[in-house]
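Service request form, structural biology core

Requester: graduate student, group of Dr. S.
Request type: structure prediction, single chain
Budget code: on file
Notes: please return the result as structure tokens.

Sequence provided:
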Amino acid sequence: MEMQKSERLLSLDVFRGITIAGMILVNNPGDWAHAYPALKHSAWNGITPTDWIFPFFLFMVGVSVAFSLSKRKERGDNQTKLLLQIFRRTVILFILGLISYGFPHFDLATQRIPGVLQRIAVCYFIASLIFLKANTKTISYTAGALLLIYWGLMTLIPVPGVGYPNLQPTTNLAAWLDRTIIGVNHLWQGTRVWDPEGILSTVPSISSALFGVLAGCWLKSKTDNAVKVVWMFVFGNFALLIAAVWDMWFPINKGIWTSSFVMFTSGMALLFLGMCYWLIDVKGYKWWTKPFVVYGTNAITVYFLSEIGAILLDLIKVTNPAGKQISLGSSLYNSLFTWWLSPSNASLAWSMLYVLFWLGIVWILYSKRIFIKV
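Core staff response, request fulfilled:
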């Protein structure tokens, strides 16, 4: 735990805060069966606003890498010490991810190994190493090369046991690799056949972070602010165009994090960040930003705690008026919302209440200038 000292662009915290608030919102509906379609992930090919959230956060991980490591890189700080710090943070993030999926039983036989925080850890580690060792041109080439390599692997290599390359949920190369290396007992519990944060699909997700690194380097440059924003919008729209074309051969798909998905979400992230930067840091429209700044300055902390909180709400049992044992979460949900709202609105209202609850928790931390870093 440490006090925040350095000056930072407010738009970065706002963007990060909006992303984390969105992540908590979509992860915690009152009733999955009645959640609005926009608040669910796409079933397979295609994209919903919910699918933007995780790649947006990886993009911001890359932006943060550029801002946090650039001075140390320029000063020529001790590389061994810096690498140890990066490795330490990576390990902590990965362990937090394992805890969030294993809590409270920690059954090693069925412990999920991949996950959201685990992917953040891997992307942070590799993006940091590349940033320290390469210039922006090399970083951009690396990001592009990873997307092309992944495209080739997924569409050209026959899947063992299937005999031909394909992009179906259970028979694609990434799913086969996850089952072969990780094992079905350690994959996402929704299927135990493939994992949305699996091994091979982490390759293109590194590009999501690297595009964020490039955006961070651009924001740190001495270029005129208006010029910065113009080029962010130009490259953002160019990325969307590439995604639309690539989608015809490699469909936009979050489940396997396709290269077209990376280009689409990176383009959207660049547009969104450019808008936040222009409105907040250039034009000074800051009156609306405080809740998101509060979320953004303790982003990993509030995400982790919200996941543990959701598990506890499901584990703690209470007796309802009918004498039946139900979860505390279900009891609160029914008592507060289901009796007067439609199923979809009740589900959304619970999600929003959960977001506001955790906003209150991190607001206390923020008011005391406590920023928990991993």
